[in-house]
What does this fold into?
Amino acid sequence: MALLGKQQINAAVDRKWEDVDVPEWGGEVRLMSLSATDRGYIEAGSVVANGQTAQVKVESLKVYREKLVGMAMVDENFERLYSNKEIAAGVLGKKDGGVIERLAAKVQELSGMGRFARQEIEGNSGAAPSGSSASA
It folds into this structure.
């Protein structure tokens, strides 16, 4: 295998996506695996740092699923539907919890997070979802 340079790494299309049916909303949404930056932002908000109280962590975890979904939902041009400001304002927190939970699980799967990270490491991730592709 050839050693990659910066140009090849930057040009690589490596994020997965999937269109997911959401009958409760009357259609489909496109979810894209989280970028390293978005994933870091979410994970950093879920950890208690030195000097912080456990309450900070609890508040962050209350909106963990909404952050996952908000940062992963994109349009047909792979542009995010919701800004960080809208996500922080809680716009998705008003939606049905079951729907958000289902979509958050799909984001974790696409992003290789949580239990899906272990499956990927063990080689048990299964077949790629139909209609999925990578995007820039």
Q: What stands out?
A: The first strand starts at residue 15 and ends at 22. The two ends are 23 Å apart (CA to CA). Residues 31 and 73 are 5 Å apart (CA to CA). The chain is about 45% helix and 15% strand.
